[in-house]
Write a structure and sequence with these properties.
Largest sheet: 9 strands, mixed
Structural class: mainly beta
Number of domains: 1
Radius of gyration: 15 Å
Low-confidence stretches: none
Pfam family, one: NUDIX
Helix content: 10-25%
Number of strands: 9
CATH topology: Nucleoside Triphosphate Pyrophosphohydrolase
Number of helices: 2
Distance between the termini: 33 Å
Keywords: Hydrolase
CATH class: Alpha Beta
CATH architecture: Alpha-Beta Complex
Protein name: Nudix hydrolase domain-containing protein
Family: Belongs to the Nudix hydrolase family.
Mean pLDDT: 92
Cofactor: Mg(2+)
Strand content: over 45%
CATH superfamily: Nucleoside Triphosphate Pyrophosphohydrolase
């Protein structure tokens, strides 16, 4: 079994994450974390796996949906405190398209459709603007909360 690209270095944690923006009308699909935070469906990239492959796998695991991955929309350097310790991620954010009509979502984690224009609760916060944009030009963001 392939391991996640996730390491502990001293007191800090580091991982590589990949996620996708799946839109339906004026809404975007989000996952709801245990603390109520919304983020995009996705997760840790595994050793030997591309970030695109990780998005396909994570969407299937989390939503039960088969998706096609489009353009790389953003890379985000995300630095924050998690469980009172420094955490750093490199996040690849892709546009994602469902391969079938979206009927129901059956997955491992709580999901919620949120209105794109009203979104302000996505973490990291740069995702709130990213989901509103129509461009497919790759952007780079830094979120430093340390």
């Amino acid at each position: 079994m392939m391991e996640d690209i996730r390491v502990v270095i001293g007191e800090s944690k580091f991982d590589v994450r990949a996620c996708g923006i799946l839109k339906q009308g004026d809404n975007v699909l989000t996952t709801v974390e245990s603390d109520g935070t919304h983020t995009l469906p996705g997760g840790a990239v595994k050793i030997g796996e591309t970030s695109k492959e990780a998005v396909v796998r994570e969407f299937l695991e989390e939503t039960g949906m088969k998706v096609e991955v489009g353009s790389l929309l953003s890379t985000i350097e995300n630095m924050f405190i998690y469980e009172e310790k420094p955490y750093q991620q490199v996040i690849f954010v892709y546009e994602v398209f469902a391969l079938k009509d979206i009927q129901s979502i059956i997955g491992e984690v709580p999901m919620e459709w949120i209105n794109i224009m009203a979104s302000h609760s996505l973490r990291p916060p740069q995702l709130n603007e990213l989901v509103k944009q129509a461009t497919t030009k790759t952007q780079h963001f830094i979120n430093k909360e340390l």
